[in-house]
Amino acid sequence: MPTILRINSMETIDAVQLRSQLGDFLAERTGDIVRSWVNQVKKDPRLTTADRLSEHLLEDHIPLLLEDFIIVLRSGEEEIEMGARWNAVKHGAERWGQGYSYKELVWEIYRLRRVLFENVMEFACGRPNELAVFSLACSSADSFLNELECRSVEKYAEESEATVRLSNEARLRLIRTVSHELRNLLNSVGLASALLSSDDPESIELMRGNLDRNCGHMKQVLDDLLDLSLIFSRQNVAKPAWFDPGLLLKLLEAAHRPVAEANGLIFTSSIKGELGSIYTDELRVRQIAENLVSNAIKYTPTGEVHLRFEGVSTNDWAIVVEDTGLGISEGDRQHIFSEYYQVSPASPLRGSGLGLFIVSGLVDLLKGSISLESEPNRGSVFRVVLPRIHGSVEVLA
Questions:
Q1: pLDDT at 349 over 50
Q2: Which one of 35, 69, 132, 356 has the minimum C-beta count within 10 Å?
Q3: For residue 237, what is the enclosing H or E element?
Q4: Which residues pair with 4 in a beta bridge?
Q5: How far is it, in rounded angstroms, from Cα 34 to Cα 318?
Q6: Residue 112 vs residues 30, 42, 330: alpha-carbon distances, Å
């Protein structure tokens, strides 16, 4: 775009100055632009996925993208900066994860284009050479939005292709895992059938134990598969609400203390620091804690398991699970949260290898982080840090 735009033989427009003025105009209206866009998206019947998102999740990177656009306008440069490209890419990835269809992504950006053009029209209205000013401002907005659309859609397509590829690989692994456990169960059932007419109490009792163990293994695999289906679902969106973490801790202790004591372990729980009420998805929090506690009990032959909720800061809190179990080597710690990874595949305490992968996925869903400290034969400490408030909330319900 030329620095000076000639209207006729007598009149010209300073394009750089005009773009800077447009940037100032939009900066004052950024909040209104975002709110207007959110309202239009919510009302658009073609954007049904948006109806399931909170306003905070719906806004996503839009405020940052508008800020990037304003920076470009004020700088006098025509080239879109790397920050804007990166935010556009993240927007496409986020929308894929939230379950948007390709068409919804395009229509959403179209709505942003409409809102921006309405503001550009207002910017140009009443200025000298109004039509030329409007044309120049629209050209700037159009270039930016085209870049946003291309980057977002490109990333969306990449995420879609990668998910399909991983999904195919996951299906094969799932088939192998379930087939293995099902075969063990069927073998036990077959042997039990052969012993039905046996008068040997010791053999019958041995087979009953094998049946119980294999049924337990199969149930765990099926439970993990159900949890995994939620992780892989693109419509897996957190449903935050206020809840009392102290009450949740009591429920978890009541559920897991008998299991731990049946295995000869001591189970304790506690709260450290100030927690108050938490605004997040309580069901997902419970799934995280239950997976970690179940793992700790399973891999702790003797000693104790401790579950603790901690107030980390004014913004964060933590779920901490400590045990005196087998521990995890440094090499294994690098892969422990990978899908289907098992520290000791030959162990009789085998599982599906999905538990910690599921925990990691749930932690990501709740915008948290997970860390591990462990030493072989001395135990492990899993620490999950989560925000006290997931997304945006105005009042305590």
A1: no
A2: 35
A3: none
A4: 14
A5: 33
A6: 12, 12, 49
Beta bridge partners of 279: 242, 389
Percent of the chain whose pLDDT exceeds 90? 29
CB atoms within 10 A of CB 22: 23
Domains of the chain and any CATH numbers: 4-164 (1.10.490.10), 238-397 (3.30.565.10)
- The string of pLDDT tens digits covering residues 161-196 is 877 776 677 667 666 766 776 776 677 677 666 666
Contact 245, 317 (CB under 8 A): yes
Residue 366 phi/psi, 5-degree rounding, is -90, 10
- Give me the long-range contacts of 12-17 (CB less than 8 A, separation at least 24): 13/129, 13/132, 13/133, 13/136, 15/136, 16/76
Q: Does pLDDT of 293 surpass 80?
A: yes
Distance in angstroms (rounded) separating the CA atoms of residues 308 and 300:
17
β-partners of residue 243 are 278
Q: Is 84 helix (H, G, I), strand (E, B) or coil?
A: helix
* Residue 61's pLDDT band (cuts 50, 70, 90): confident
Give the burial class of 163: count Cβ atoms within 10 A of its Cβ; 0-12 exposed, 13-18 middle, 19 or more buried: middle
pLDDT band at 132 (very low <50, low <70, confident <90, very high): confident
In contact, 300 and 324? CB cutoff 8 Å? yes
Which run of H or of E encompasses 367?
Answer: none
In degrees to the nearest 10, what's the CA dihedral of 343, 349, 352, 355? -70
Structure tokens at 291: 């997976």
Residue 303 has pLDDT above 50, yes or no: yes
pLDDT 10s digits, 80-97: 666 667 888 888 888 877
Instruction: Give the CA-trace dihedral at 16, 22, 24, 27, to 10 degrees.
Output: -130
Q: Is the pLDDT of residue 227 over 70?
A: no
